[in-house]
Amino acid sequence: MRFLVHTYGCQMNVRDSEAVAALLVAAGHEEVASEDAADLVLINSCTVRQKAEEKAIGKAGNLLAAGKVVGLMGCAVKRLGADVFTRLPKLHFAVGPRRFGLIPKIVADARYPTLELGDDEVPEGLDAHPDTRRAGTFARVQSYVTVLLGCDNRCSYCIVPDVRGHEYSRPAKEVIEEVRCLAARGVKEVCLLGQSVLRYGIRNKAWETAGGEPFPRLLRALQEIDGLERIRFTSAHPKGCTDELLAAYRDCPKVCRHLHLPVQSGSDRILAEMGRHYTRAEYLDAVRQLRAFDPEFAVTTDVIVGYPGETEADFEATRSLMEEAGFDNAFVFKYSPRPGTRSAALPDDVPTAEKERRNQVLLADQEIRGQRRNDALVGTVREVMVEGPSKRNKARLSGRDSGNRIVVWDAPDGARPEIGSTVRVRIDAAHPQILVGTRVA
Ligand code: 5AD
Ligand code: SF4
Asked: pTM here?
């Protein structure tokens, strides 16, 4: 069959979609680029906020109305359970986040309707050999590598533990082997994925032998892989910012100087209600340590506005924390109650208009802060990994520095370095989310 995968949500979903595509191609199906050309459309859904879930369900509804064979996969399936067929009566099949390995068989048997919710199993095909993985979405020289499935943190607002199951760390041996294969195939940069990736190797053993904290140890092992140039990982919790992690940063030049460290709120009262297990001061201390190690260290974050009971004072605490932390980038989310989570039992009492106002205030602050942070880099020379032509201006090339900052520079066709190579770019101008420069020798 000719198939297409639509992906909503986080990087973990992007990675799962790649694995499914690889499994389907291995089973003799053909991946196509447009809905019109596809007989089968898979929709990899997200449910972290209600809006995200509605997008995926809406998309599935439209495609079913257009007569396609549609399979829904991912987080929304697990949350909805059998109700998914109430929402989408004509849906052909639905599989939960850890059951995508069943899709080739379901399609081969045309066993419709099928519902496979799954639980804590390790997905079949997660370790699909990198050679069979489609290169697609995340550029040819970069690859996601899932290292930790599920989440055991149980933050009050978060549906992820309900839909992605308990934590499971893949054996370090398997991860190292996968990254080695990717590097041998020309991948220069990997991004290690986990909902709370620094908890790698804590709930279940990842290493066969004793020897230091499991995640920093993994970074040290990957540092040794020939051909691999950059190692990123996401997302992190401040509890994981240990001395051993800092030591790994210090000793491993391939590990990028960027951490996505979701803070969620700057108010100690709200942090405690969320069950985040750190205070504002502890969070800021983690940021301070990273910047003490390298003043250009990029720290990015996620923030929720309008959590139940969030007062103006709580909100102002978030504002001031963001300023103190000096975030390089921030994603702001309006609180959305998720059925079955602890906070869903609390009144969702911040009016929508007020959530929107708080959202806009934080985004406006971040524009100014991003500009200021980037202004400080004008005149510096960045080591940039080339990703391809800039989206806005094809005469320019675009790439990222170690801090995950987007850097663009003029590159006439005759002067185009290979995608995946690292070049030096002197920064001439800064914008809140982008640096513009000139290539230097
Ligand atoms: N409402 C709003 N935002 C949420 N997030 C997680 N759950 C919710 C929710 N119920 C945000 C958090 C998380 C990001 C991926 O999504 O900020 O870090
Ligand atoms: Fe949700 Fe917390 Fe897990 Fe992140 S760490 S996915 S916020 S429960």
From this structure: 0.95
